[in-house]
Automatic annotation (TrEMBL):
This is MarR family transcriptional regulator. It holds the Pfam family MarR. It comes from Duganella radicis. The keyword DNA repair does not apply. GO terms for molecular function: DNA binding; DNA-binding transcription factor activity.
Amino acid sequence: MSSYDKTLMTLVNTLIHAGRAYKGAADALTADFELSHASAWPVLMISRLGDGVRPGVVADAVGIEPPSLVRIIDQLVAAELVLRKDDPSDRRAKTLSLTAEGKRVAERLEKALAPFRRELFKDIPQADVEATVRVLLRLDQVLAERNAS
């Protein structure tokens, strides 16, 4: 195995491990918001993606399959954090939006996550973080293109 292949293998393994570790650490922050770990992420993603987003887009952003999101959305609707409406452009489809309370919860979650992320990256130069973002965005694009074909 070449040196570059070993580097790529280490990168992929580290990416998977770091992603899981980050999600686990970030999930611990949601305990203060009276939300399950599973329901906090959809609230955040609906906030980030904007009102009127389709459930499949939210599921993709959270990293779960759309059928797995249905029960969570049902709970968030019952908790009056999310509104589920018919998509005006396609009545078979639904859209998701946050209620006023859902927006307040999302804002509190973002305020809790910002210092958490800053603490994690405090010893990494901003230029390195920006380079990593460029590489990961490109990787995401390559994988999306590959999966589309």
